[in-house]
Amino acid sequence: MRLDHLQIAIPAGGEPGARAFWTGPVGMRETPKPAALAGRGGLWLVAGEVELHLGVDPGFRPAAKAHPGFAVPDLDALAERLEAAGHPPRWDDAIAGRRRFFCDDPFGNRLEFLEGRA
Length: 118
What we know:
Layout: E1 6-10, H1 15-23, E2 29-31, H2 35-38, E3 43-47, E4 50-56, E5 69-72, H3 75-84, E6 90-92, E7 100-104, E8 110-115
Parallel strand pairs: 1-4, 5-8
Antiparallel strand pairs: 2-3, 3-4, 6-7, 7-8
Organism: Oceanicola granulosus (strain ATCC BAA-861 / DSM 15982 / KCTC 12143 / HTCC2516)
InterPro entries: Glyas_Bleomycin-R_OHBP_Dase, Glyas_Fos-R_dOase_dom, VOC_core
Domain VOC: 2-116
């Protein structure tokens, strides 16, 4: 079994902010949604083998606890880009041997970024 994709909720009309965040400092690439789903709004993004779907939720509430964890090749560079874009990293050392930080997307969804394992 493997994870095919992950979906995070965004508020209605949040696509421009989400696009700027995910394709900007995070560095993902937007991919077209299937025509049958395009009218629902949201975005689909990819980076390497990771596929992320951002779905519009009319009753949106940010996920303050539940979160995805993204392993990235250069954690420090990502932290710098996020800081510069106004999304400061919150470093956490609770897991021995794993460098990681949390930050929030433009809508308050909690995200975790971890140093990729070799």
